User: Fold this.
Amino acid sequence: MFRFALVTDVHICNEEAPYEGVVRKLCHQALPLLGDFVEFCNQQELTFAAQLGDFIEDIPGSVESDRTHFQSGMRVLSGLRAPLLSVIGNHEQVNLSVDEICSLAGLETPYYRRTFKGVKGVRGLRGVRSLQDDSALDVLVLFSSSIEHTDIHISAQQMHWLEAELRDCSDSTIVLVHHPLDEQSLLGNVWFEKYPHYCFVEERVALRKILKESGKVKAVFGGHVHQTSVSRIDGIYYVTIQSLVERTEAGAASSAWALVELDKDRLLMRLYGAGPGEFELCL
Ligand SMILES: [Fe+2]
Assistant:
């Protein structure tokens, strides 16, 4: 069994800019909430923990503020006992170069692969003990470039890399990428209903074809949309998770994150914070 925790769209910033007249991201709460996520993770037996991008809220023209906010977040995540995977989002790309983001996040390259060994004897979310112990989980982290928010691309070079890596991956492979690769509904979404061209990776049809033809990818996890969504295309689950700091109708931050268990034949995802729930997905 593999167990991992995901948090996304943390939007660390010390000031909050209204969006179309309404404050929707409670950025000043990002660091304490990220601390809560770390504390939660450290109570679990995790294969890894990941933040799925938009780690900071950019301040127009202020490289120094963005850098400081990124460093503050990384200091909080340094308290994780589990390995950390970082995904690059669009807000960190506005003022910071890709090289600097990688340096701040401790990454050698903006897209990469990690392989983890399964753990045995772990008590699962539903109380079942996993006996699977000799498997490997491959995690492919993609980099969707986007500076102007409308120019969301995954390069041809990266797609070639993805195809080559997949040939060598195990049958339990997942993908992490900030921007969605599916076609989920944006109806009622306060950020993207009117602006779908701000939302999805432009090369997503070609990317989905690569993932499908590998026969190895179980699920793709991301953020950006600020909504929790699960869709299934060609046998692969495409999941997005609500932002940690999204202002709920009650006025508080969502405090959302996900805990995922992956077995050979099942993916179980438990959501925490506002809008809690559980998904059991057959593989
Ligand atoms: Fe984003």
